[in-house]
Design brief:
The chain has 236 residues and is mainly alpha-helical. The chain has a single domain, classed as Heme oxygenase-like (Heme Oxygenase, Chain A, Up-down Bundle). The protein is built from ten helices and two strands, in the order αααααβαααααβ. Helix 3 runs parallel beside helix 6, helix 6 packs antiparallel against helix 10 and helix 7 packs across helix 10. The radius of gyration is 18 Å and the shape is globular.
Length: 236
């Protein structure tokens, strides 16, 4: 069994739970309070900033030229998405530079990104690759499932662009490339140290599951309007 198949098997129930969260359901139905979505966009911005930092850490740890090129491509795409798409969308919601500067990441985003940084530092490249894939893959899963279930309401929702982005063929294909890259990297690691295969597999599954738990907690806290902030933000 591929590593990605194990990760999916152990985590799919958490992703499914995310699709049942009121935040996403009301987005799909077009009735989510815009103030909650504004907060999501801010918190997602802070997450993306850390995501890019982690990608750059992983690029420095990648040993294969092909993997280095892959990481470079992901960094480029993510930075473009952040600065050419995400920030302009924030502006449309009335989120200006001053608000970005004054706002900080909520506790869940802080804990989540700190956890991934810790895995990269302590466990290395493969752990970080696994952790970041969970975010990309979960959004592809959510986009697909929500589009299937709420196909009649999403086209009328003011948030339809969000669902279209994460269910788009291009996004799904890019995510699959990430999955394939992880599986390839895992096969290399296995061949180099077969004795630690089981232990390492279990560790990667735990990391993947933990990240999925953070994602679920984030959807819950966003709907509750959690405003307790930590130190990540525009002013740092």
């Amino acid at each position: 069994m591929k590593l990605s198949e194990l990760l999916y098997e152990k985590t799919e129930s958490l992703w499914l739970s995310s699709t049942e969260e009121p935040f996403l359901i009301k987005m799909a139905e077009g009735i989510l309070d815009q103030s909650l979505f504004r907060n999501y966009m801010l918190q997602d911005y802070f997450y993306i900033l850390e995501y890019i930092k982690i990608l750059k850490e992983l690029r420095s740890l990648a040993k294969k030229p092909a993997m280095q090129r892959f990481m470079e491509e992901i960094i480029s795409v993510t930075e473009k998405e952040c600065f050419l798409v995400h920030i302009p969308e924030m502006k449309k919601l009335g989120i200006g530079d001053e608000e970005i500067e004054k706002t900080r990441a909520c506790q869940v985003v802080w804990d989540y990104t700190s956890y991934i940084h810790k895995q990269v530092k302590e466990e290395g490249f493969l752990a970080g690759l696994t952790a970041l894939l969970q975010c990309s893959w979960s959004y592809a899963y959510i986009g697909q499932k929500m589009t299937e279930k709420y196909g009649s309401t999403i086209p009328l929702s003011p948030y339809k662009a969000w669902f279209e982005a994460y269910s788009a063929k291009e996004y799904v294909e890019a995510n699959q490339l990430w999955i394939d890259s992880l599986d390839s990297e895992w096969e290399t690691v296995k061949s180099e140290n077969i004795r630690q295969e089981v232990e390492t597999t279990e560790k990667l599954c735990r990391i993947f599951q933990s990240c999925a738990e953070y994602e679920l907690l984030l959807w819950q806290s966003l709907y509750q309007g959690i405003t307790k902030m930590k130190g990540i933000g525009g002013g740092n």
